[in-house]
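Researcher: Next entry in the queue.
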Amino acid sequence: MPAARPSPARTLVAGLLLLTALASPSTAVAEPPPPWEFHDGDRVVLVGDTFIEREQRDGYLETVLVLANPDKNLTFRNLGWSGDTVRGLSRAGFDPPEAGFKQLVEQVTTAKPTVLVVGYGMADSFDGEAGLSRFVEGYNAFLDAVAPTKARLVLLAPLPHEALPAPLPDPSAHNRDLERYADAVRNIAKERDAAFLDLFHAVQEDRERRVRTDDGASTPDTDNGIHPTAIGFWRLANLPLLNPLAGSVGFADLRDKLAEQDGARHVADDARLPLPASPESGLSPDEARTLQPKNLKPGRYTLKIDGRAVLTRDAQEWAEGQLLPPGPEAEQVEKLRQTIVAKNLLFFYRWRPQNITYLFGFRKHEQGRNAVEIPQFDPLVEAKETEIAELRKPVPHTYELVRENEASR
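Model: Structure for this entry, 409 residues:
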């Protein structure tokens, strides 16, 4: 039986500049590598605690990274495990704790990463300052153990603990510990010339900005101060630190198109697809398209996109400019995101079946014969990846203004 669903421009150059600024100029000997400089055929493996596991549930970060690389075949594999530590404690199951570390290393090695995204620190941080040296030792032991993969490393700082109303606790003391653990990851990344993404400070600053500007400040990022909700993951995926497309312009300009006297037809060929829409507002961070034909004859005109009517206004209203509702390109992105989520769920069934103890563990003498079914998820995952490869590419769309009397013919 399969497991339940897991709960788990600033251009790329701007992201690199931000990463460089985090290093002390007196001690940095080399610029860290850009975090999301992918090569065609890269296998991106994400490993860590609850934060990483739950990312696959909504898939916003993976969707953004796929959209930023429409010309590259990238494979993403999520090996996150709720409550896990750098020693793989949550993976031990019924075995001794040290078996969890062995499982962690084997799982990462088997996934054959060329890029390894590591998101540990939250679960370990509850050991406080006293556990910091053990965390650093364990983190380095893990990276040493997976070094034979030769994967390029992207190390993530843990998220800050969000302040939420009582009865949830005051996070101040915990945040002091989390900042220490974030600094420890920064130092590990510097020592290994790895990319480091300071999520602790980036998220903290974003929350403070939203409070100052009242930009969604009433909606928390998390359900308990620690674990992001869908809107929390969406906000994370749109931070310039994580999002290579943040602030970039990729859409063909429609503002002055379709301006002939009797309307016209225009084919929009976008350089990229829009960023995923917010799960709350349904709007993308990308600026909405505007259409403003100024020389239409009097009358009412219907805008059709690929033959589908989407908006009707009179000539004067069109001349004043009209914001267009999300179009087929937005629908394509949502389908892409949903396909990524479906792929991740199938892969989760593949590597973490609910009855794993009966299939592969000490009770496999009872149901081990059913283990032959687990590799049957592989072609299902591959089929979803084929869909993703098509959905990530922008396609042309035809925009047409039709006068009302002509539209009814």
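Model: The domain at 12-248 is CATH 3.40.50.1110 (Rossmann fold).
Researcher: Noted, moving on.
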